[in-house]
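Try this one yourself first.
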């Protein structure tokens, strides 16, 4: 895997997501230090789809994307998060969350399993 290609792709994602060069550099450093998530990200970069192989405590990047969409649905509807209709930002933040999970999985597992946003049993 060529780091330069990945760095360029991260730069493109960050530009589309409204993130700065500092975020891009920090994201790449975290990504480069985790081979499993790096490979998942690289697969996404090449295929624009997920391999769904990388997991942190049984949770993959697609699980995180779904949680993000569910959890932030009300704010997304108001379009004040910068993620509505911004696939690049959602993907970038999902991978960033997954990388952060590697260091502190319990914090994110609690959020993912406990903060389900607006969709829940008995809502209506």
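Now uncover the answer:
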């Amino acid at each position: 895997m060529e780091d330069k290609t990945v760095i360029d792709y991260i730069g493109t994602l960050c530009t589309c997501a409204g993130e700065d060069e500092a975020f891009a550099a920090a994201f790449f450093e975290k990504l480069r230090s985790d081979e499993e998530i790096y490979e998942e990200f690289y697969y996404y970069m090449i295929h624009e789809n997920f391999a769904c192989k990388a997991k942190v405590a049984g949770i993959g990047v697609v699980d995180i994307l779904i949680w993000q969409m569910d959890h932030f649905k009300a704010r997304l509807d108001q379009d004040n998060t910068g993620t509505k209709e911004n696939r690049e930002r959602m993907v970038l933040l999902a991978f960033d969350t997954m990388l952060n999970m590697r260091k502190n999985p319990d914090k994110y597992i609690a959020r993912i399993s406990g903060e389900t946003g607006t969709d829940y049993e008995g809502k209506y």
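Discussion: The first helix runs from residue 3 to 17. The radius of gyration is 15 Å.
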